[in-house]
What does this fold into?
Amino acid sequence: MSAVFEQIFQVGFLAAIIRIATPLAFATLGEMFSERAGVLNLGIEGIMLLCAMTGFTATSVSGSLWLGVLVAVLTGMLMGALHALFTVVLGLSQHVCGIGVTLFSSGLAYFLYRLIFGQQSVPPSIKGFQTVPIPLLSDIPVLGPAVFNQFTLVYIAILAIPLAAFVLYRTPWGLSVRMVGENPRAADSAGVSVIATRFQAVILGGALMGLAGAFLSMAQFNAFTFGVVSGRGWVAIALVVFGRWDPWRSAGAALLFAFVDALQLRMQASGLGHIPYEAFLMLPFIFTIVAMAVMSRNAVAPSALLKPFRREER
Amino acid sequence: MSAPLIEMRGITKSFGAVKANEAVDLSVAPGEILGLLGENGAGKTTLMNVLFGAYAPDAGEILIQGQPARITSSADALAAGIGMVHQHFHLAPRLTVLENLLIGIPGKSGRIDRAGGLARLAEISRQHGLTLDPNLPVSALSVGEQQRLEIVKALFRGARLLILDEPTAVLAPSEVDGLFSALRSMAAQGLGIIFISHKLNEVRALTHRCTVLRHGRVAGRVDDPANTTSAAMAELMCGHEIVPPARKPSTPGVEVLRLDGISTSKHSGTALRDVSLAVRAGEILGIAGVSGNGQRALAEVISGVRAPDAGRMTIAGQKVSRFSPREVQALGLGRIPEDRMTTGLVTNLPLADSMVLPRIGTAAFSAKGLLKPDAIRAFAEEQIKAYDIRCPGPMTRAGALSGGNLQKALLARELAFDPKVLIVSQPTRGLDIGAARFIHEQFLAMRAKGCGIIVIGEDLEELLVLCDRIAVMYEGRIAGTLDSADASVGRLGLLMTGAEGHG
It folds into this structure.
């Protein structure tokens, strides 16, 4: 048994947690911004898939990884704008529109991918992001190689967490976002445009979802497959609740989920062979359900979540 | 008097065929408190929404310090120095006092300007005696403090004209005094104030001048409210004389409702602690108290919505055992809940459905598990006629009715079944004088017929006119019960704040 533990708890394991957590952190922060402004974005799963596809395509055509990231982010913003158009401007059901956006984005991703790459026996791949060790910091024992010898996108995710907290809690725009998610009428009567603020928050959320998608197809897998997202978007929605709509807690939730996921991967590989691997695959999701059931008892969602704002209504 | 701070000239605003405002003139001078009076639907709120930029007027102009101004959004109104305290507060409960103040205020080098906000708050607090803890979440504030925050919010944005839409509706008498002195201090410092109300005694006590609206037009102006009788102002508002209903002496009969040592757990809101009371046939018992002192729990227990942890309750001598709405109703209890829209009826269903909802399972409205639509419709039509409920018909969406008509519908649905006891919460909240008058008459008629009535209310004047006895609730207990002949607003007010023990 101790051999199993040794195999699990090592530098590679820590590094794997960070890597698994990165797209979840982007996606969770993105969903959090949207929900803090009062807009549930169930389009996240499809948006991530479409962004993974457009980013991958842009890179494989142009050869530039950062151009790919940019395209993915712009795709995310565009899809965020689409969702905001339906739910914020037209005030339609956030559930229905979100699922619609996911179905549309997924379908579009499959369609465009087939159109561009055709059916190939070996799926095309790109030379994705390489790890970039940070001088000095990467020399710290254990933590150094695990955290500071990663892809640039990982560093961006790490920086995005305090930045998101700063924007949300310390800037006037962040206050507006929180206000339109709690009591849009109050924001409106204070001269803040509810529609504009929500629109911006959903688009910012879409951009972050774009980064999540880009990470999957351009750093983690270096290829686009139809299963590249495989439920990570849905998990992010749960993690936002788990993280109580707070950037720090949400990122922590992503890290915790990543820990369980990395653990089950190791357990699959570690020769606990008589247990079917599907049992391990279930672990992170069981963890999510249990954590949600426990944590969401005290979680209080933004008061105006799911509620469209129409000025003339009482 | 100095030049007007704000002047509205010939404001006309129509919604479809309905003229909500027609050629309304109104002006407020610096340092002046103007009362804006009118019944519901007289156009007060529309007029203020025009001034605050929520509606664009069809005709007329607004002048600010003599200069024509275009106000098309609340941002414009704020920039023009107009602040509004809405009847329903525009606050985010989970954000702090300071955050609620700073919303929409540009930051300093990209950040929220906390230091500047704190300094400004301290200054306003000092000037007008409006103190608030900046770091508390709004949910921790009392209703009076939330209102204070709304006023501070307007001043924070540099308002020179403050509009208050029925500000006293939510306050206890002692809080009203505090509000009035703050408003007087603001006026003394040159602010203009528009005070919307239909409580005439308050208007007479506070305002310098009044404009009275009726059916969207200016029905009259009162230059000296303090020396004008309430009756004269009421006549301006309604267009005809209003005589308060006379409560004839009655001899209460047998006990129809009795509560003995009722206590509840703190499930939602204030818990009840050892509450005992009794209502006899032909008697109206008032329950006074600042909102949030257990009135809701009391209403819920009596209506059978919530079972108490301890104590017993009898209706017409029979013990209530299961505490379900159906059981207490079968024993003869009728109820008119506090919130017409949420617990009273189903706003998206036809009025007729809401009117039979509490008795939907009885033989009158269903048989063999199927509804009897004709009987339901006939019942609703009958009540609509009997109580003069103004609506296009029984199949109208209930939410489309005005407050007064909804209250009539709720009253009709209970009175049609001759309850032995009737419990009503805030029976005339938000209703105008005419509608309130009608509701009062119905209660007195029921009383004459031998029904025991409990009226839970915050309007002490109303309770004093209507009730035979008044019990005051404070922190979940009955702080005292007074015969209304011995009671006064002052004495009740003392009990309501817990200043006086069992009396």
